[in-house]
Amino acid sequence: MAMRVISFYQEGCMGCEEQTPILHEVEQDLGIEIEEIDAVKNPEYIKEYNLRVTPTTLIIEGSEVRERMVGLVHREDLEAAIRRHLPEPLPR
What we know:
By secondary structure, this protein is of the alpha+beta class. The protein has one domain (3-83): 3-Layer(aba) Sandwich (Glutaredoxin). Helix content is 34%, strand content 27%. It has three helices and four strands, in the order βαβαββα. It has helices spanning 14-30, 44-48, 75-83, and strands spanning 3-9, 34-38, 56-61, 64-70. A four-stranded mixed sheet has the order 2-1-3-4, with helices on one face. The longest helix has 17 residues, at 14-30. The protein is globular.
């Protein structure tokens, strides 16, 4: 089952602007892709994932949300959450 990491943001959101470089660092460190989606421009996701705040980062396996991180997530916490759902542990 493939894992997806999606980070929802919106224009002008200060927390979202701080989250973006963290997402890119984690992508590089773990060799994964994190999808960044503007929740305002893609309102279908607001209802589908019950989004209330941006940034919100989800770890999804199949159609099930395994982790939901609301607000700014620090790099260490984001990496730890993603590592819990990787098929094979990555070296630290």
